[in-house]
Amino acid sequence: MKLNLVKLSDGEHRAKFVCSAYDFYPKQIQLTWLRNGQEVTEGVSYSSVMYDGGLYYQFHSYLKYFPTSGERITCMVEHFSLSEPKLVDWDDSLLSEDMTPIAFGLCVLVVGLIVLSSGFIYYKKHQPHTTPATEMLARPEDLLPGKPSVTE
């Protein structure tokens, strides 16, 4: 049996935990939510037990709640294949580990933009000065008789 516990945000300052049990047989299973060791029934919902197409099943339970600092959220699984209930605690460090690739990518992006901007500025400052084509055009006073033309 595999167990997965994730925290989602539903955009209302509420947390939504998902406790998922995969690859279990027989079909009968129970998932219970605990907050600081006490059973939680409010804000709990369940999927139906789903057949995965092989020999096994999967089942999901959801907990919506308003978080408070220092709470311990636990998903307890009871199943025939377990000699005792399995407890999986939510660990806030999992969230920070999930953010590591995103933070790394943002750092690479910022450094890349800095290097690109610096290169562009360096190129513009060290580019040989050329006279714009509009300055090379003859002015009417330069075409007066007795003055050399631009083409001479």
From TrEMBL:
Record bears the keyword Transmembrane: yes
Keywords noted in UniProt: Membrane, Transmembrane, Transmembrane helix
Keyword match Transmembrane helix: yes
Domain of life: Eukaryota
InterPro entries to which the protein is assigned, alphabetical: Ig-like_dom, Ig-like_dom_sf, Ig-like_fold, Ig_C1-set, MHC/Immunoglobulin
Ig-like domain mapped to chain residues: 1-89
TM annotation in the entry: 102-123
Pfam families assigned to the protein according to its UniProt record, in alphabetical order: C1-set
PANTHER family linked to this entry: HLA CLASS II HISTOCOMPATIBILITY ANTIGEN, DRB1 BETA CHAIN, MHC CLASS II-RELATED
Protein name as it appears in the record: Ig-like domain-containing protein
Lineage: Eukaryota, Metazoa, Chordata, Craniata, Vertebrata
Gene coding for it: Nfu_g_1_019829
